[in-house]
Amino acid sequence: MSTSTAPHSDLDLGVDQTRRLSTETKASTKTTELLVFLATVIAVIVTANVYDGNGNDGDPFGATTAMRYVVYLAIAYMVARGLAKSGSRDYYDA
Predict the structure, then answer these.
(1) How many other CB atoms are found less than 10 A from the CB of residue 53?
(2) Are 81 and 33 a contacting pair, CB within 8 Å?
(3) Is residue 9 within 8 Å of 82, Cβ to Cβ?
(4) What is the CA radius of gyration of the chain?
(5) Span 49-94, pLDDT tens digits
(6) Mean pLDDT of the residues in the chain
(7) pLDDT band, residue 20 (cuts 50/70/90)
(8) How far apart are CA 67 and CA 58, in angstroms?
(9) How many domains would you assign to the chain?
């Protein structure tokens, strides 16, 4: 006679509950951080294309400066997502 033991999650404890599962955080597409990041990148690109400067000493806000700001924004976004992921949970039911 062989007995088998069920895993803990399959045991009937007499309580009818659904399991609460969790991920580390919400998906990045569900956060306002992504929307703010995209809006600021678009604002930097539009500003770099539209702004001409005063006309005497060239374009002070050219492509190089715009790309530098986009890189800074990307780094800030990654740091913000890292901080958001540290210690938070997004619960869902099975």
Answers:
(1) 11
(2) yes
(3) no
(4) 25
(5) 888 666 677 667 888 889 999 999 999 988 888 877 776 666 666 5
(6) 74
(7) low
(8) 17
(9) 1
Let me know if residue 23 belongs to a domain: no
Run of H or E including 93: strand 90-93
Question: Which three-class secondary structure state does DSSP give residue 45?
Answer: helix
pLDDT at 38: 92
What type of residue sits at position 1? M
Q: What is the pTM of this model?
A: 0.59
Structural domain contains residue 57? yes
**Residue 44: CB atoms within 10 Å:** 19
Could you give the CA distance from residue 23 to residue 37 in angstroms, rounded to a whole number? Answer: 23
3 state SS of 63: helix
Domain membership of residue 43 as a residue range: 33-93
- Tell me if 81 is assigned to some domain: yes
In a domain, 76, yes or no: yes
> Helices 63-85 and 32-50: crossing angle, nearest 10°?
170
Cβ count within 10 A of residue 37: 20
